[in-house]
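> @MW can you paste both from yesterday?
MW: sure, first one:
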Amino acid sequence: MSLPEVLLWQILRKQPGHIKFRRQHPIHRYVLDFYVPEWKLAIEIDGIAHDMGDRPERDDARDQWLASQGIRTLRIAAREVLADPAAVADGIVRFCTAR
């Protein structure tokens, strides 16, 4: 796990909002940073590498495949997590409970 993922996991593992999060969850040929089974939500923490080379196209293909399986993807910039992991976690919980 990257540093932003570790910082976020320290909060999410406590199940804020009574939401169960899984980390490094395998599905098909992918490994999701975080997954909320109850909401079929993948949470991806994107660092700078996600903007380079063919990575944007690969991320798009992955998101499309997940969507075809009924899984929605929420992408969050790593810099946001580094700046305020608690605020990001709160935003994720609000996103889940608003659905």
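MW: second:
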Amino acid sequence: MLTISTVRLLVLGSILRRGISHGYAVLSDITSWHADTWTNVKPGSVYHALNKLESQGMIKSINSEVNVKLGPSRKEYTVTKKGETEFEALLESALVSIDIQQLSAGVAFMDMLPRQKVIALLQQRRIEIERSIGFLKSLPTEERPSEPSMHPELVGIWVGYVENELATTERILAHVQAGKYVFKSEEEK
């Protein structure tokens, strides 16, 4: 299930990448990123997020100076300082999240943080996943389970899923530590 924070992260990230953007451009960005394949973001949730972010002072609207086909001016947005702070908090939260949609959005924008910050967040995620694996492996199981949570196959599904999350986190972490990608404050020369 898509969380509100994931939509907020995608919307703020789109506007930050562009500098100034209108709602349709934000939706176009999210669509061109095929975010619908790694989140459940819908057009209505993007426009709802724009309205909510504006009412909360995270973005501010400015009237476009370009009239499209003599129509009304287009409402464009820019991210406020408060919105930048929110974006960074959402991004950091996404990079340690166990929710795959949040993590996906976090990875999509991780280059907007300093490399060392991303490394620290991924290391934190790895530690939490390792704890989860230890807990799951300690759960009691029964060959003839007296309740569903004690079914060995069910516990096996959980362990397998979380072990895969660990492997994914370690792979991303290794790439970032090896110098892959360009991060905030690293200028390409």
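> thanks! The longest strand covers residues 59-63.
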